[in-house]
Design a protein that fits this description.
Elements lengths: L6 H19 L3 H14 L11 E6 L6 H16 L3 E6 L3 H13 L4 E4 L8 H9 L4 E4 L3 H4 L6 E4 L2 H14 L4 E6 L5 H13 L3 E6 L5 H14 L5 E4 L5 H11 L4 E5 L3 H9 L5 E3 L2 H18 L9 E2 L3 E3 L1 H12 L4
Parallel strand pairs: 1-2, 1-3, 3-4, 4-5, 5-11, 6-7, 6-8, 8-9, 9-10
Antiparallel strand pairs: 10-12
Amino acid sequence: MTRVRTGARVVGAVLAAVLGASLVGCSSTGGKRAEERAKAAAQGRPAVSTPRWTFAMITHAGDGDTFWDIVQKGAKEAAAKDNINFLYSHDDQAQQQAQFVQTAIDQKVDGIIVSLAKPEALKDVLGKAAKAGIPVITVNSGSAQSKEYGALTHIGQDEEIAGEAVGTELTKRGRKKAVCVLHEQGNVGHEQRCAGAKKTFGGSMENLYVEGTNMPSVQAALQAKLQAEPDVDAVLTLGAPFAPTAVKAKEAAGSKAEIDTFDLNESVARDLKSGALGFAVDQQPYLQGYEAVDLLWLYRYNANTLGGGRPVLTGPQIVTKDEAAELEEYIKRVTR
């Protein structure tokens, strides 16, 4: 796996880029404009002179899900740079999410960003967006349906490929029997993650469905599973908030299973460093939000698209104890 560059290397690269831009700026209008945009962005002002377009992002996030805080932060920071009026709404119920999309259409927004955890529920309303001439970009979930539903592109990780990376990593670690904990029934991305992991894992893997909105229930279900099957040596959770709950369940059950997870947050970073977690799978949520807004802006401004009809992948990256230490400052500022 390619490691993230250390802070010193990043600073050096940034300084080199700034110096290069400065040299060009002395001899060309393009360079001066680049300098002006960088200065405006640093001061929190729009870096462009395009109209004040309005983009709406509608996700399937549940209340308190820190993953989506990171997505939203990336989107907001790109919106500030691109002179975008940014609207955000979310609901873990697909029908309500579809209603939010309809509201955005009624408001005649200039672009829509949407996640497709339960794609069928949003198919009709996205068809209405297409008829209204509103460009759509899908993020995070629903890469298989994105093009069919008329989106310009999909930004995120391919969930099955991400799962396959997990299965390969578990095999490398010598694990033999794993449990994949699904906390949201009907979420196609979650099913794909577990299926991908099972595909490449050299041992056996079983799905465990839990009630993700009730953490005590999640802990109890997993604890019971580990007590009933002490030979389980790996537990995979599909979201960062569930990792510490899995650690508690393991301890209460007296299990020796390794706990691994999808996604990062401060708690996951700490547990990776301490060894309470084996590894995490990062899909760069900040980048998903930031690039979705940026690509909509580029499409409105210059008819640009990315991906060539295929998803723009932001993951997976396997993060272990060493990588967590390198990423810690970014995780603390809620950009990783």
